[in-house]
Amino acid sequence: MKGHVLAARNARVLYVPSTKVASSTLRRLLAEANGTFRPDLVPYLDGPTISVDQSVHNMMINGLVHMELLSARDQREMRSSPEWWRIAAVRNPYARLYSAWENRILFRAPGQVLAEAWGECADEIVDGAIDIGGTFRKFVAVLSENPGVFGRDSHFKSQSSHFDLTPLDLTHLVRLDREGELARFAAELGHRVGKTLVPRRLNEGLGLSYRDVVDAATADLIRRIFADDFDRFDFAAEAFPASLPAVVASQRETQAIRYARSVTERLEQVSRLARYRTTTRHLA
Questions:
Q1: Which of 63, 107, 148, 230 has the fewest CB atoms found within 10 Å of its own CB?
Q2: Counts for the chain of helices (H) and strands (E), in that order
Q3: Is 1 among the domain residues?
């Protein structure tokens, strides 16, 4: 059985993660609060890690455990005890989807999308450079019309679907759409464990806002795709213009994006080889 809910046992906190909702930041906060953050072990990982910061998703590095893999008695205590916090976070669906696209599709971070997604979501090119806005809007249309090409990748599923995997009675819901709420949660968590905790941004992208690339038609698609999130978490249906100025990467930026893709592809190849050698060594 694969776990979903993360437990910081020393800090007595359960965390329901959602992809592209400050999940790296929250994992690091919980690992630091728990006293189990081990970045010194990064050189010993055999899985693909885009950066040292992103290694916090690895259980060896964060020292958290999956609640579902613990005893029934422990799970009952974690689910119901007033001594335990049960936390999650939610993010504006427009911002979350742009961030997911930039990370998983534009930069090709390792994920679970099917091979045909790359053809369906191929770059829109203007004078040899990637049209960021046009390529994103094309992706949203594909997600609306043919979501199957994104496979089981949770980055393109609703936040509600993450919550429904293992329903919990939450004590804290951190809303990233509210200024300063993540910092306030970090301070409260730090007070709980007697440490100074500061949330760090660990997954920086191109520095663009979703408002730079979302037009009215695309916004309508996003609201339809993630209708459950808009309804469940009462996100506002923002107004967007019918058309936008072009957002096109420079030639240098286009080269950098393509280079990043090639590095990721090579990293996955090396990672597969490392896992193969580890497996064959254990079987020998």
A1: 148
A2: 11, 7
A3: no
Distance CA 187, CA 62 (A): 19
**Alpha helix (H) ranges present in 22-106?**
23-34, 59-62, 72-80, 93-100
Evaluate if residue 278 carries a pLDDT over 60: no
Residues ≥6 apart with Cβ < 8 Å to 69: 1, 3
166 three-class SS: coil
Instruction: Give the three-class secondary structure for 88.
Output: strand
Nearest to 240 by CA among 136, 90, 124: 136
Say which amino acid occupies 235.
F
Question: Half-sphere exposure of 281 toward its Cβ, with a 13 Å CA cutoff?
Answer: 6
- CA-CA distance, 135 to 124, in Å (whole number)? 5
The predicted structure's pLDDT at residue 277: 55
Q: What was the pLDDT predicted at 269? A: 64
- Contact present, 224 and 144 (Cβ < 8 Å): yes
With bands split at pLDDT 50, 70 and 90, how would you rate the model's confidence at 81?
Answer: very high
Coil/strand/helix, residue 90: strand
Contact 256, 33 (CB under 8 A): no
Q: What are residue 90's DSSP bridge partners?
A: 175
Report the pLDDT averaged over residues 250-264: 94
Domain extent at residue 97? 6-283
Instruction: Report CA 282 to chain centroid distance, whole Å.
Output: 32
Residue 10 lies in a domain: yes
Has residue 249 been placed in a domain?
A: yes
pLDDT score at 106:
97
Sign of CA dihedral 249, 250, 254, 257: negative
| Residue 46 DSSP SS3 | coil
When divided into structural domains, the chain yields a total of: 1
Residues 114-134, mean pLDDT to the nearest whole number: 97
Residues 47 and 273: their CA atoms lie apart, in Å, by 10
Q: Which two tokens stand for residue 42?
A: 């990064």
Q: State which amino acid sits at residue 95.
A: A
